[in-house]
Amino acid sequence: MKQTKILILCVTYNSDSELQNYLQSLSVSVGKTQDVFVDVFVADNSTEKAANINSKCDNINVNVLKFNENLGYLGGISAIIQAKPEIPFETYDFVIISNVDIQVSENFFEELAKNKNRNEIGWLAPKIWSISEKRDRNPNRLKRYTKLEIEILRLIYRFAWLHRLYVSLFYNIKKGKTTEQEIEIYAGHGSIMIFNALFFSKIKNFHFPAFLFGEEIFFAELVSKHGLKVRYIPSIKITDTDHVSTGKMKHKHVCQLNFKALTALKNMFYKQN
């Protein structure tokens, strides 16, 4: 069997212990799988202190890039790509973008490798089990947002009190909805996004003008633009230890960042609607 090559681009922000746990889970999963090669590039956005990161892990190659400023989620990913233009994206089967407050299952890479010849799938959305919410965060979104729905979301996030009301009334409705079937969806959850590397090589010089949030819609639109699919594949499993960095942010600031991201998405993808 031909070796499966995987590139992981992840971002840490003052979350050393979560990063080490994440890397350890990657190491264990690779160790239980044959013919899998994994490169990991970490964007260290830490500002509070110098990160204490042990990059020596069995079974995986880890490279840490210290940026000494908080560049945001996709900002950190873009910084890796700009700092390492020699990364041979075309040689990988998958490119993964992720937070570090997650852990992969022991059979994660084994299950992922089973899907490497499905070139029509631009984005593979795994099962992401949230410890705090006790639910699967995927499928994140089944259908594309309408322009009206984007405007409603912008309104909700424009006023922090309105967002609190929305969460208290409607958010928990999602918890009971789950499926164990593989299905086509609009967008997966942004905590870990697994892309067909051929697709990612086409868009690796992307620019998303938002600090945080909105990544799911951004990539869903790009996948659709290239005539590819987003597929929810629950046999690929993740555990989400939940919002290590964003959980420390004030609610009003979270709302402001979401509003800015949604405004950017509206201007990028919904002008003609």
Describe this structure in words.
There is one protein chain. The N and C termini lie far apart (47 Å). Helix 1 (16-31) links the parallel strand 1 and strand 2. 34% of the residues lie in helices and 23% in strands. The mean pLDDT is 89. Helix 4 (147-158) crosses helix 5 (160-170) and helix 4 (147-158) runs antiparallel to helix 8 (251-269). The radius of gyration is 18 Å and the shape is globular. Strands 1, 2, 3, 4, 5, 6, 7, 8, 9 and 10 form a 10-stranded mixed beta sheet that branches. It has 8 helices and 10 strands. By secondary structure, the protein is an alpha/beta fold.
Explain the layout of strands and helices.
Layout lengths: L3 E9 L3 H16 L4 E9 L16 E6 L6 H11 L10 E5 L3 E3 L3 H6 L7 E10 L4 E2 L10 H12 L1 H11 L12 E3 L6 E5 H7 L11 H11 L3 E12 L10 H19 L4
Parallel strand pairs: 1-2, 1-4, 2-3, 6-10
Antiparallel strand pairs: 4-9, 5-10, 6-7, 6-9, 8-10
Helix pairs in contact: 4-5, 4-8
Q: Can I get a quick summary?
A:
The chain has 273 residues and is α/β, with parallel strands linked by helices.
The helix content is 25-40%
Low-confidence stretches: none
Largest sheet: 10 strands, mixed
Radius of gyration: 18 Å
Alpha-beta classification: alpha/beta
Q: Could you tell me the strand content as a percent range?
A: 15-25%
| Count of separate DSSP helical elements | 8
**Elements, N to C (H/E):** EHEEHEEHEEHHEEHHEH
Distance between the termini: 47 Å
Strand tally is 10
Q: Which oligomeric form is depicted?
A: single chain
- Output mean pLDDT: 89
